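Minutes, project check-in
Item: structure for the 547-residue chain
Input as provided by the requester:
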Amino acid sequence: MLGNITTDVLVIGGGGAGMRAAIEARRHGVDVAIVSSSRVGYGSNTSISAGCFAAAREGNPDACHQHFQDTVAGGEHLNDQDLVAKLAYGSYPQVSQLYDIGVRYASARDYPWIALPVDPGHSETTTMFYGHNCHGRDFSLPLRQYCLSQGVHLHEGILVTSLLGDKGRVTGAMGLDAGGGAVSISASSVILAAGGLGQIYARTDNAAGATGGGYSLAYHAGAVLQDMEMVQFYPTSLGNGAPALYYESLFHEAGARLLNSAGEDILTRHGLVGKDDITRDRLSRTIMLEILQGKGYGDKVLLDIASISPDKVPELEPVLPRGFNKGKRQWLVAPTVHFHMGGASINERAETSLPGLYCAGEASGGVHGANRLSGNALAELWVFGAIAGVEAASTVKGQSHLPQASVDREIERLEQMFPGKDESLNVIRQELKQVMWQRAGVVRDAAGLQRAGDQLSALEERRHDISVNSGRELMEKVKLTSMLTVARLVVRSALQRTESRGSHYRQDYPHRDDQHWLHHVTVASKDGEVQMGTAPVRTTSMPRTGS
């Protein structure tokens, strides 16, 4: 039986960007619905984040410009600078707006470590605003409650399977409920806020729902995506799925060290001697190269904090690893997938290349360039979530229409997923994760990426043989289909970019090439095939010069 949802503004995704967009759209007097496969406010990367965002001090114009410059430099000039300007000048006003929504902030008195020197890549003009308990739910739960109080409709447990449109405009979507029932969703405007793809990799600290579904939806609808090769790795994770250790506070002034199996200090060995040298991309690459050269402890290196000064312990205690208070001083760590800088191409109004479709948060590309600075993820959610909400509400023009033929085609596509043989979905999913980690991970080269493409094609063929016996299993097969699609886009984009820049490191092209690669790698779907291209980086006041 076909279910139906009708709204003015449809928000796909129940994380920070989606809720912030919904709140802003609702303020403009339109009907708003959030559709999410997980519980809104609970199942996203926002909810499991460290709960902090970066903003220029008191919105001072000079500080805002410095935030702008830091972000572009950190992104190695691959950022779209009009988007960065929106982030840098728009983040501080979000402090009070979030407070009015119900968010409460931590203080340095309660958490001394948040007053430590700013993170690598940020200047002293940047302030980190932490939630009361220094956790993502300090933001996501107040946002959820505010959504409910303002009459935003929450439709949970529905997986959106495709975007649909009428006369060249996106006017809604199709979804699946847990029972396997199809749901049609009509809307005047659609905001895509389902970002994150960490789960296509064997090692990630992302939420379970970060399977790349948002990118797959945009791609199959015909939107242009960019920078899909730009996957950020956090350097110091304890293990697959484990939270990463907050390394930014542990090195240099605190005195922690990273050691290889020969007992050598990795930071010193690779010349990472200053605070700004240990950005996430550089440190992840350094650790992985040590491991690949056989100088690790298996697939990890050793974090040694025995030399941390005793007078630093009280302020660092909240970020020290578990076991420190019991005398443990060494932990094995390795990089893990943390964030994705790529996504749907947007302009400063959060518009994608498709009329009627807006995008915000990790689902969009362009803000962070080739590497994201700490605190800029949540800042992006609030700034561009609000922009998307305003813009989507302003384009509401009466009842939308979903062509019945499009609805019928999607239902038929889903029904065709039921027949299968004896292939295991879990086996294919795990093989996919290993392929991406081993061949499209921190260190890449042409041979490995080409091999990854071949392996993904083979997995795609095997996917058809997965048997589906319930609505829940159908949902999982749809997710796996999206994971394979997005993995292919990452691999193709990484193969296209024949240089190293930020988080994208090609061992066969180890240097940054500003002469040829100050361009985005773009991907779009044409006649069912991946169409690769490039697009120039948009600049404003900061010249495209490299170091």
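Outcome recorded: The chain has a mean pLDDT of 92.
No further action items on this chain.
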